[in-house]
């Protein structure tokens, strides 16, 4: 049994990567993320060297805060753009802006221009980077069909994030050893432009979104904040993400100060330390791929958060170069677990129409936490010394993860229940073309209905107000008083009256005790007709069913239209 279980997990891991590669849209979206985040990490290392040379550890912290505060304020306000239309278009604009800002920074450094201009360009680049992840995180569910596929996509993105965490600093370290900071900036710019080119080729059917007038950005941003405010689960995940990000901000300072002052590794040592985080992240992402099918995402999220802090504290206790490299690799493992569990949980808990805005709230928290973490590390180094600062800041995440353990385990149960509803709906052919956000929108609106044997669900000629899926039991379909068909578990009925806005064309009678899941007419038609592939499937289904058992004339004497969606 153990071997079979291990083989099953390995098959799921291989399937996670192969499914992303076979899907051209997912492949391009994922590779664009690799380019964007390689650019971000290389840029961060180069900027850290510029700041340290200009003003030491305090300048490092101040620049970190300067980069993140505008992003923290503007990310939630700008994120509604990604909920209004095509999310890949937002990503293209963001990538081009980042590339342009980084190119100019390279020129300023090359000609020994004002450092303040480099800092201002860093703010622009960081603001664009802050917009990238919410839009990309909201795009991925649209390109997926199941929760398993979304978890796979987040594992793959986590691996690419890890590769970027390794490659970005490593490239920076190599280039700094032979050239200078301006070359690192130039390479980062090229990676951003490559990300934009990949996104231009993404093609997909956009999921249905509620129609209505566009309001001002502040009000739309407020809806994202309100969605977080209504969900204790989202509050918990975002709160822990903020703690992890505070530690990440501190790490941008520690990587330089520890390398130069504590371990004597020189400037390139900062890139080497961050590259060790990348090595651990790559290995952690490969290990996380074995967890694609797990139902314990909340528990693994807690482990990931804890691993962001504990290694830093241990570096403070054992300040040796080899030990630091090994321990920081475990930070990368924690990052991989957060990518798998955290982003999947947020994607499963958030309605598609608000997805980018909720991820925008997350990025705002991340941005401000990184800035606070950077300045906090600088202050605590001055107050407690490098060793003491590492221990104090490193203890934060493990303590919070332990305190949140039971709530996160409870969250796993609610996501599992949603998965069961999605699986039931996906047995209905009409719903199979729907992307994950759309079918989850249906699943969240399901209402349980119990029908006793011999009782009617509805009668021919009744007004159509709901669509039904059979969870358990059997039902007879009667047309003009005779049994035309018998339906069982996983089959749906009631769509003809909803899609054609006519009275019921048949009677449905419970043959056995029936456990049904019902959808209101509005929710059903908004989703099914709002997404082109499911609308086409619905049209075919209605035609087939009319030919199978519907009378030529409807109960009120009107002749049935041959256009099922007329």
The CATH superfamily name of the largest domain is MFS general substrate transporter like domains
In N-to-C order, the SSE pattern is HHHHHHHHHHHHHHHHEEEEEEHEEHH
CATH class of the largest domain: Mainly Alpha
Give the DSSP E fraction (strand runs of 2 or more residues).
5-15%
Number of separate strands: 8
If you consult CATH, what is the topology of the largest domain?
Growth Hormone, Chain: A
Structural class: alpha+beta
Strand order of the largest sheet: 1-8-3-6
- Oligomer state equals single chain
3D architecture notes:
The chain is α+β, with helices and mostly antiparallel strands. The chain has two domains: 362 residues, Growth Hormone, Chain: A, CATH 1.20.1250; 124 residues, Jelly Rolls (Sandwich). The chain is 73% helix and 7% strand. It is built from 19 helices and eight strands. A four-stranded antiparallel sheet has the order 1-8-3-6. A hairpin with a 2-residue loop joins strand 4 and strand 5. Helix 4 packs antiparallel against helix 5, helix 9 runs antiparallel to helix 10 and helix 9 runs antiparallel to helix 14. The longest helix has 55 residues. It is elongated. The N and C termini lie far apart (55 Å). The N terminus and C terminus are likely disordered.
